[in-house]
Design brief:
2 copies of one chain form a homodimer. Chain A has 6 helices and 3 strands, in the order ααβααββαα. The first copy, chain A, is of the alpha+beta class and 111 residues long. The structure holds a DNA duplex (30 and 30 nucleotides).
Chain lengths: 111, 111
Amino acid sequence: MNSIMSALAEPNRLQIVELLRFGPRPVGDISERLRIRQPQVSKHLRVLSDAGLVEVQPLANLRIYKLRPQRFQELDAWLDSFRSMWDERFDRLDGYLNELQAQENKDSDKK
Amino acid sequence: MNSIMSALAEPNRLQIVELLRFGPRPVGDISERLRIRQPQVSKHLRVLSDAGLVEVQPLANLRIYKLRPQRFQELDAWLDSFRSMWDERFDRLDGYLNELQAQENKDSDKK
DNA sequence: CGAGAATATTCTTGTCAAGGAATATAAATG
DNA sequence: CATTTATATTCCTTGACAAGAATATTCTCG
């Protein structure tokens, strides 16, 4: 999860990923559209690839990059653990305040 | 979106967010549980707060932090634009290869 | 009001990562 | 095989940022 986040934290990489939503593209195409110099695009694609977010498929002279759904599914699954937040009313200070209350009860017992 | 990602890219901050899933907590509590020194926790919470991921609610001497669902919903919405990926079979090189094919047709016309 | 607890801020330092420029590699093609 | 095109890699410099240490701030309570 951490690798996903840090890969997507870089603005240019986020743009690349968003561009690849529309389909696989070779490096040069990405470079042109996003106005990023080719070496930087290659480097960013390296990072994205290491993070498992994209994969490459050689085609003749070109290297065609495309998204790998898997990691995005993981991100989706991770988000799941937060979804209860906006369903249930979670702002009642549930977790900690129970402890706090227990603590205060103990104090008042001591009195 | 970028601010969300870069806020969550830092491992300790990700941990903090994951801890806050279970409910609001004051700084000291976070510091203890995650074994992170208090000043760093405060600094990380600052970043998370600036990114809109958490909000604070003072209670006596304490400052109780909790997650703000809004930004997580945005992240969820962003992920939506990728969901078509793992439904449809998206590895057929749709986008670019159409262009490429068009290009090659043009070339063969020239012949 | 003074002391102590909880939290925030400042300053400094070291590390890492991104961009630029140049170069290396690989495949295509005449 | 030489050249061109597409892409990757290396080296260097610079800026951002995280951690540590020290200190400031805010609130509570006797």
